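Posting this for the archive.
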Amino acid sequence: MTRTKPPADVEERIARVSFADDGLVAAIIQQWDTREVLMLGWMDAEALRRTLTEGRVTFWSRSRKEYWRKGDTSGHAQYVRGARLDCDGDAILVEVDQIGVACHTGTRTCFDADDLDPSVGSAPAGDPS
């Protein structure tokens, strides 16, 4: 299958990303309407290009060393509703319409695990308030 060339504006957007030395950038996946954080994945320029032009989230698998499009084998797809670059250009927030669960463990979000900070909401150490 021959790929068509992405629009220049997509290439301009990708050029603004500060990819790490390994060529990857963190992609935080968020449900577009509820703002629920679903998962974190990794993208290189090609994965980001596919995500922005195809409308389905594509990641780079660091362990398998290959691209994977969320939902192709599980049916739990992520349809892109928007994407934003953070202020430093080194993280991407991808807003999606999540179909099914996002986590490989079978939960809606990868962030249903243990709470690391049981003192959330208390004053920082040394703060008298």
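The mean pLDDT is 89. Helices lie at 8-15, 45-54.
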